[in-house]
Specification:
mainly alpha; globular
């Protein structure tokens, strides 16, 4: 029986002080950014002034969410080797983004990925359909982040759940409303540096207990819990589930709206590729650290203690921090985790606001005839709307098991956004009706199948057996989106779209005419 005693759940002065310093610095940056955020280009894309290295760090910050840091470490701590599936899945999506998406996206798009899909197709139907996929992804991701934030802060700081939700909502609205993309980018950069430094120190202090030798750590884990912790099968038992989950993680990365939006912040395609290269390096390094953190928690804290605090294992990294560095180090890592949630929520909010204002208000309602002042005003109102909605959703879903929503967000992104984005870039015969059919099929099927899956139908609704056997629907929903996009395009010829494909190729590969 493990005997580690933790102070989690008690007020930690170090956490509060470090988080207060983080918020103060980032609000000062927001004040600085607000003076430089007047036009649409400045609000949505930081006036394309972010360098490749800075954007790489910001991309890493956007991607390394609290779910990654706390969730994967916890999964490894309780399930062993299979936690690596998440680490690898999250990472493998990035080379795909670098070689297939980054350059065409930067050259063809302006502020959202719908700019690329609609480049040679009819604007209104494509933007309405893409908004369904984007907003669904953002809302499910936001719910998971807000509920996670409330629960996490209650455990970490001893603050009431509702108070924590309001703090997160108000601060992230401030970042986006006043500072736009410039403030959001620098919040992500600061958070990424803090998270990478914190995780590195945690690994060094953990490995110090094993002579700085990771092999000794793994051997001790196998000795304490049997060799099965180093073998696959502890978490994902159905190989089709493993394939479907892998597809969602890999291709979902290339369809997340708040990630795709970052490629419009750099001056050209070369900087876009560079930013993905930098991000891949930092993200790869980070996920290697989470694997060691997970096994460190398994050995030094113990599975009984970790599961006793949170049955999902989400507190494993924090318990390990307290075990190897005491209360002050726990406070530092806790504050970094809180800052991580704040930064990711800000990125999601900005992405949602751009979909509402740029794709729906300007392109659909105003038919592309809105002036810049009016568009920025609508974007700020949309930011406020999404921020308030995030707070309300956080209240509504209090106490609910929303872990499946992150997987759902990746599944929708992989099914609704990625197929239409890829086909619009590469296939001359892709048509407006094909794009709409692909996006609606992908998003609708992903939502329906996950409701019928064991994750929701059995675990949440309490039914005995699931109607759909897989925990993640991407294998079916993404395939269906590709098939529908191709079939409908073949049956609905669109000569104008095909003629514009040559112009699109010039812009895609040479950047001719890109902003």
């Amino acid at each position: 029986m493990d005997t580690f005693q933790t102070t989690l759940g008690q007020v930690n002065i170090a956490s509060i002080l470090i988080f207060f310093v983080f918020v103060t610095i980032t609000l000062f940056i927001t004040y600085w950014a607000a003076k430089r955020t007047k036009t649409t280009s400045e609000f949505y894309a930081a006036d394309r002034s972010i360098s490749g290295f800075q954007n790489g760090l910001a991309l890493a910050g956007d991607y390394m969410s609290a779910a990654s840091f706390l969730g994967i470490a916890g999964m490894v701590a309780l399930k062993g080797y299979d936690g690596l599936i998440y680490s690898i899945g999250f990472l493998v999506g990035w080379p795909l983004v670098m070689f297939l998406i980054a350059e065409p996206l930067r050259n063809l798009g302006k502020f959202t990925f719908a700019d690329v899909v609609a480049f040679r197709l009819k604007q209104r139907p494509v933007r309405i359909a893409s908004s369904v996929g984007s907003l669904s992804t953002i809302i499910f991701y936001l719910i998971a982040q807000m509920v996670g934030a409330g629960s996490l802060i209650t455990i970490l700081f001893g603050l009431p759940y509702e108070f924590a939700i309001i703090i997160v909502g108000v601060v992230m609205i401030s970042y986006v409303l006043f500072g736009g993309m410039l403030a959001t980018t620098w919040v992500q950069i600061i958070k990424a540096v803090l998270l990478l430094c914190g995780a590195t120190f945690l690994v060094i202090m953990t490995l110090a207990n094993f002579g700085m030798n990771p092999i000794a750590l793994f051997e001790q884990a196998a000795t304490k819990y049997s060799g099965s912790v180093l073998e696959p099968g502890g978490f994902v038992k159905n190989p089709w589930d493993a394939i479907s989950l892998g597809l969602a993680l890999i291709f979902g990365t290339a369809g997340l709206p708040h990630i795709l939006m970052r490629f419009f912040t750099v001056p050209d395609a070369k900087q876009a590729r560079k930013s993905v290269f930098i991000a891949t390096g930092f993200i790869g390094y980070f996920y290697i650290l989470t694997f060691i953190i997970g096994f460190g928690a398994m050995v030094l804290v113990g599975q009984d203690v970790i599961a006793g605090i949170d049955k999902g294992g989400n507190m494993a990294a924090l318990l390990l921090a307290e075990s190897v560095g005491g209360q002050f180090f726990l406070g530092f890592i806790a504050a970094v985790a809180f800052a991580t949630i704040l930064a990711v929520v800000a990125g999601l909010t900005l992405s949602g606001a751009s979909t509402l204002s740029h794709d729906l208000y300007v392109s659909v309602i105003k038919k592309g005839k809105a002036d810049e002042v009016g568009e920025v005003k609508v974007a700020r109102m949309a930011t406020l709307l999404i921020g308030v909605m995030a707070i309300i959703l956080g209240f509504i879903f209090k106490g609910q098991n929303v872990a499946f929503m992150v997987g759902l967000a990746f599944s929708i992104a992989a099914s609704a956004n990625f197929p239409s984005l890829l086909l619009s870039i590469l296939w001359k015969k892709f048509t407006t009706k094909g794009a709409v059919a692909s996006m609606i099929t992908g998003s609708g099927l992903a939502v329906v199948l996950i409701l019928l899956s064991p994750t929701v139908w059995v675990d949440l609704f309490g039914n005995e057996t699931a109607i759909f056997p897989l925990k993640n629907p991407a294998l079916v929903s993404m395939s269906a989106a590709f098939i529908m996009g191709i079939l409908v395009s073949l049956f609905t010829k669109e000569d104008e779209a095909a003629l514009k494909f040559e112009d699109e190729k010039l812009r895609t590969y040479l950047g001719v005419g890109s902003e």
